Amino acid sequence: MCKVAVPAASSSLTAAAPVTTPPPVDPAAVVPPGLLDALARVPDPRDRRGRRFQLTTLLAVGVCAMTCAGHNSLVSIAEWARRCEQEVLARLGCPYDPFAGRYRAPGERTLRDAFARVDPAALTAAGFVHLTALATAPLAPVNPDGTREREQRRAHRTARRVRPGHQTIRRRAIAVDGKCLRGAVRADGSKVFVLSAVRHDDALTAALREIGAKTNEIPEFAPLLDQIADTNLTDAVVTVDALHAQTAHARYLVEQRKAHYLLSVKHNQPTLARQLAKLPWREIPVQDRSRDRGHGREEVREVKVASVDNLLFPHAKQVVRIHRKRRRLGTKKWSTETVYAVTDLAAHQADAAEIAAWARGHWMIESTVHWSKDVVFGEDLSQVRRHRTPVVVSVFRDLARAALHRAGWANIASGRRAHTRPEAILTLHGIP
User: Fold this and answer.
1) pLDDT, tens digit (0-9, with 9 covering 90-100), for 238-277
2) Structural contact between residues 364 and 155, judged by C-beta atoms closer than 8 angstroms
3) Closest by alpha carbon to 206, among 125, 276, 262?
4) How far, in Å, CA of 247 to CA of 269, rounded?
5) Which helix (H) or strand (E) holds 221?
6) d(CA 69, CA 58)
């Protein structure tokens, strides 16, 4: 391992203003057995007068309807509930009408009014508690229902191929990234953005926070992670993109939450970026190399790591240089890209293979979570826009995706098509 001494320099970055956040939810406290028990932890903001449906029932209807293929809007959620059999409505907790002699299904207006007031952060925390309690089904070469599917076979082969060094990753990693709900527009014309924290290993969303119209992702970073309990964040590695390469974020993670960071560095931090680029990288050997083929392209990644002293960043111990080469299959022309990152983990705490795995695993939040919500669930096409409804419905999509992935489905679209019967959906979510 090469050790490079870096001259000290000054930096002037302002810390984010403190924001009041709800207390974190510890999944180890009380683990609910099913989805209804988990959703019962979400506070009901509605007036007690005039309630006909429990909030738990309305939220469960939203998650279950989103699990079924073709139900991506509030109208389709209401239609799904209206087509359910009486036994299914009873299992969901719908009220019984003694005059009509049947269980009542919620209408679109009832769902819309309730979802507009629900706290998305509390809903995400409740879903996270429920999903972490579920056992993860191993990825088989066929779908859980026995059908053969190409993506399922590919995921099964990938899970069986473990590169040397990747099996010794000693810390759990959490990716933080923002997303724009493109179809949702507030009354003032501003777009709706959410910031979420997702675990690398199982793609579970641990926390989610809506970004206000007059702010951005940077001041929402600490309030987002404040929603995660210390048992899940202490000694974990938080990976973020270059936007969050802020000194306040680094100090918050290391000094307040006893966690670690792996931050990408680009030209939004010009002084730090120049400092990293001027290190003697030619004298440092390549410590991790990988070559992958898939999705119509071939990619080669070379990772160099150097220990540093007195770097222009708080608690920095190692600097990472990742050189990527890509080419489309069938062509000879390669495109290259070089990126830099910095971490507070010393050489004895994280080697090059671990750092390379965290750096690549960060994009799981884009390729797995955001891509599924946009393409499979049609989130970008959704024009739901009333109050908190766009973010709440986005959480429904994420809970449905995670439940299917937890049950062993590599192709979420195939999993949604397999759950067209309400009885199968209720069994998937553990609703008795």
Assistant:
1) 999 998 999 999 999 999 999 999 999 998 888 999 999 9
2) no
3) 125
4) 10
5) helix 221-225
6) 19
Instruction: Please give the structure tokens belonging to residue 355.
Output: 């750092």
The alpha-carbon radius of gyration of the chain (Å, integer) is 23
Record the tokens describing residue 225, joined without a space.
């992670």
Whether 183 has a pLDDT exceeding 80, the answer reads no
In this structure, the number of other CB atoms found within 10 A of the CB of residue 325 comes to 14
- Sequence-distant (6+) residues with CB within 8 A of 280 are 4
Residue 295, sorted as left (phi over 0), alpha (psi -120 to 50) or beta, turns out to be: left
Q: SS3 for 293-336, per residue?
A: EECCEEEEEEEEEEEEECCCCCCCCEEEEEEEEEEECCCCCCEE
Among 156, 127, 3, which Cα is nearest to 67's?
Answer: 127
- Using CA atoms, how far residue 331 sits from 289, 293, 295, 301, 419, in Å, is 22, 13, 14, 18, 41
Degrees (nearest 5) of the Cα angle 98, 60, 427? Answer: 95
Question: What pTM value is reported for the model?
Answer: 0.85
Q: How far apart are alpha carbons 394 and 389 in whole angstroms?
A: 8
> Do residues 265 and 272 make contact, with C-beta atoms less than 8 angstroms apart?
yes
- Reference 127, options 215, 21, 54, 56; nearest CA is 56
For the stretch 290-333, pLDDT in tens is 888 777 788 899 999 999 987 889 999 999 999 999 888 888 88
Pairwise CA distance, residues 432 & 423, whole Å: 10
